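Running this now, will post back.
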Amino acid sequence: MSKDIQQELIDLIAYCLKDLGWAELYPEKISLEFPTDRRFGDFSTNLALKLSKLLKRSPREVAAELTACLSKEISRSELKALVTQVKVEGAGFINFYLKEDYFYAKLKEIITRGKAALAAEAKADKKVLIEFVSANPTGSLSVAHARQAAVGDCLANVLSFMGFAVQREYYLNDEGNQINILGGSVSLRRKELRGEKIEFPENYYQGDYIYDIAKIAEELRIKEEELGDFAAGHILKIIRQELLDFGVHFDCWYSQKELAKSGKVEEAFRRLKEKGYLYEQDGALWFKSTAFGDDKDRVIIKSDGSQTYLAPDIAYHEDKFSRGFNWLINLWGPDHHGYINRIKASLAAFGHKPEELEVIIVQLATIFRNGQPVQMSTRRGQYITLREVLDEVGADAARFFFLMRRTSSHLDFDLEIAKKQSAENPVFYVQYAHARICSILRSSPEGISQEPDLSVLKEKEELNLIKKLLEFNTTLTICRATCDPYMLTVYLQELSESFHKFYDLHRVLDPDKNLMAARLALINGVKILLSCGLELLGITRPEKM
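Update: finished.
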């Protein structure tokens, strides 16, 4: 939105801290929160509570002194037209109260400009590469991959909306031991289908899909040495379709096999060796990652001449920068947590800043059916797949549920709730708010003013709803800062709740035409926000339900 009063107030607080000689005591980022209870202002900060410990004074005393400075500066700035008062309340919270005219003006901006009023200023200095899912093409996507897909795709939507140049990438591990094992698994199942007696190793892929691939390979008479690549290609087609049906697309499918052929791995080794970060020991080639904070050095070429997983990953991440990206975001599963330091170390060795790579660990999800968790075993093929979830609850519910918890938290996904057509199902609740507004707007009489007097909106529920609209940009800022779109699902549920409360207590199609016009404008603003938020989540925006 045009003028960010929240940032202006933060800047003013920073000025007062400097004026009072407290700036050096509190070098951290200043933040303003939206009070849960709107009786306590429109913005609030607990800064005085934090400063009191450093100043060894009571929080209310610190808050009073800071508030006096803030009030003085507001009275002689343009903010005096927007801020009615600054008060010390509770244990020492500083609360800011804004004039209603400010909120009416912001609502008018949303109605007039639509989504354009919500988009942030472009950040042309950041070219972002988000790598996510990147599952080995050895089986169908699991719910763990599905959660990564939902988070990565939504995060890309949010960052794109905020003005970043974003590319989505899937790193395809299409060579190496797991492809050899896949080929061996298909080979043995094909022999079994021919009537041969086999012994199937425990570490081979044992799902029923291996039989299906073996049957196809037999019909097409695929050569033994080509079974691994054939099976991986077959599975990759399934993965691509599952992701498309989930509403997820990738701008680039980056092949590890092609990376190996390109000579970029050897080139990366050459550069690291020139910098003195590679050495030989016990017949192996080591990367000196301890020079950049890793707990131990890492082998990249074993004594038998084969590469470790780290070898192509070093070249791959350096190649991301060579393609012009300057903010890398990787979404990994919890089993990759220990891998972060070694990748960051390799990038530091090439001269990049550690913060240019952001690794988001997406915790696992547990699927519940009829109140009981579904047991899973990936190697044996006994797990709930993305396809099964899509078939059972649909893409909308699946995406919303996978996004409903912080990525750092384990997720419980209840299939029965996801299928309910009631307020108990959060995605239904949000979509129903959107559909209900569409229905009201369709029913509105002709001749209603398109430029209503919004100042007639005086009811508590009306003002709370307008204020909730203005939290949208802050919500996106949090999503950007945390690289986690979770807060957007929370915001949309809260906005829907505010709308439903308003609608249950107040008539929109009121006999008073001025009031009706203003309320129609208000719910149209809600519709714009709900539509934009659902679009960022990759969820449909039904107009009828």
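The chain has a mean pLDDT of 94. More later if anyone needs it.
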